[in-house]
TrEMBL record:
<dbReference type="InterPro" id="IPR006058">
    <property type="entry name" value="2Fe2S_fd_BS"/>
</dbReference>
<dbReference type="Pfam" id="PF01799">
    <property type="entry name" value="Fer2_2"/>
</dbReference>
<keyword id="KW-0479">Metal-binding</keyword>
<dbReference type="GO" id="GO:0046872">
    <property type="term" value="F:metal ion binding"/>
</dbReference>
<dbReference type="InterPro" id="IPR001041">
    <property type="entry name" value="2Fe-2S_ferredoxin-type"/>
</dbReference>
<dbReference type="GO" id="GO:0016491">
    <property type="term" value="F:oxidoreductase activity"/>
</dbReference>
<dbReference type="GO" id="GO:0051537">
    <property type="term" value="F:2 iron, 2 sulfur cluster binding"/>
</dbReference>
<dbReference type="InterPro" id="IPR036010">
    <property type="entry name" value="2Fe-2S_ferredoxin-like_sf"/>
</dbReference>
<dbReference type="InterPro" id="IPR036884">
    <property type="entry name" value="2Fe-2S-bd_dom_sf"/>
</dbReference>
<feature type="domain" description="2Fe-2S ferredoxin-type">
    <location>
        <begin position="1"/>
        <end position="77"/>
    </location>
</feature>
<dbReference type="Pfam" id="PF00111">
    <property type="entry name" value="Fer2"/>
</dbReference>
<dbReference type="InterPro" id="IPR002888">
    <property type="entry name" value="2Fe-2S-bd"/>
</dbReference>
<keyword id="KW-0001">2Fe-2S</keyword>
<protein>
    <submittedName>
        <fullName>(2Fe-2S)-binding protein</fullName>
    </submittedName>
</protein>
<keyword id="KW-0560">Oxidoreductase</keyword>
<keyword id="KW-0408">Iron</keyword>
<keyword id="KW-0411">Iron-sulfur</keyword>
Length: 152
């Protein structure tokens, strides 16, 4: 099928099979390798990207489901974004494999809820981290909230 994609504010025109998972279009066709493959079953969140600001697990999302949404990958998050700043300041990643998905989940959370409660953070930040960096991720979400409220 012919695909017209807006990814990180750039337009791409492609021709791919309708059942191709969005992940492989992003990685193989667009060469944006910050989005990771892990479980391939929609369970871990390593492949998280944003569609119109909402998280989606791109390994399990066929491109035929797209409806002209704007797609954001980790490459579309500037280093001065409050979430990126917080992650950087707190040195969150261990191996780093899950982190692009974690960061995009935090971006989506704060866009929808400027001051999430601990329970709301826990519910939204449901990506897996094999390194167990959950305490650092929680601290970084809290710092992101603070930085965002100060207009960082
Ligand atoms: S690789 Fe997509 S959810 Fe795990
Ligand atoms: S930092 Fe290693 S899997 Fe999360």
């Amino acid at each position: 099928m012919k695909l017209s994609l807006n990814v990180n504010d750039q337009q791409y025109n492609l021709d791919v099979d309708a059942d191709t998972p969005l992940l492989w279009v992003i990685r193989d066709h667009l060469k944006l390798n910050g989005t990771k493959f892990s479980c391939g079953n929609g369970l871990c969140g390593a492949c998280t990207v944003l569609l119109d600001g909402k998280t989606v697990r791109s390994c399990s999302y066929p491109v035929s489901n797209l409806k002209n949404q704007k797609i954001t990958t980790i490459e579309g998050i500037d280093s001065d974004h409050p979430v990126a700043q917080a992650w950087n300041q707190l040195d969150v990643p261990q191996c780093g494999y899950c982190q692009s998905g974690q960061i995009l989940s935090a971006v989506a959370l704060l866009d929808q809820n400027a001051n999430p409660s601990d329970a709301e953070v826990k519910k939204a930040m449901n990506n897996l981290c094999r390194c167990g960096s959950y305490p650092e991720i929680k601290k970084a979400v809290d710092l992101s909230t603070e930085l965002k409220s100060k207009g960082a």
